[in-house]
Design a protein that fits this description.
By secondary structure, the protein is mainly α. Helices cover 72% and strands 0% of the residues. The chain has 4 helices and no strands. The longest helix is centred in the middle third of the chain and has 37 residues. 4% of the residues are buried.
């Protein structure tokens, strides 16, 4: 819950900064740099928006009593993995299989 609140707070801060930075740069290089910075910031916020959805899903799994179990195999996810990635839905082994399949389909 604290992780989610931190993300939401950062998001509000970013929105406030972006709204206040309504500068019109006369220099094309300055304008391009400013627009690039904004695009990067918005992309980061979009990733964090997706992370919030994953956090909400993990909280839902806690409520359901399914948190900490692999969605693919039903086996427990290691505590070490959950400490590193609390939103994990797959065990390390299942995640590795998933990534291998992704690579195979992407390469073909």
């Amino acid at each position: 819950m604290a992780w989610k609140e931190d993300i939401l707070r950062e998001s509000r801060d970013t929105l406030a900064v972006l709204q206040s930075e309504n500068e019109n740069h006369p220099d094309l290089a300055d304008r391009a740099s400013s627009e690039t910075d904004r695009a990067i910031e918005l992309r980061a916020r979009d990733r964090q928006r997706k992370l919030i959805a994953k956090i909400d899903a993990a909280l839902g799994r806690i409520d359901e009593g399914t948190y900490g179990y692999c969605e693919e195999t039903g086996e427990p996810i290691s505590l070490k993995r959950l400490d590193a990635r609390p939103i994990a839905t797959l065990s390390v082994e299942a995640q590795e299989r998933h990534e291998r399949r992704e690579r195979v389909y992407r390469d073909t």
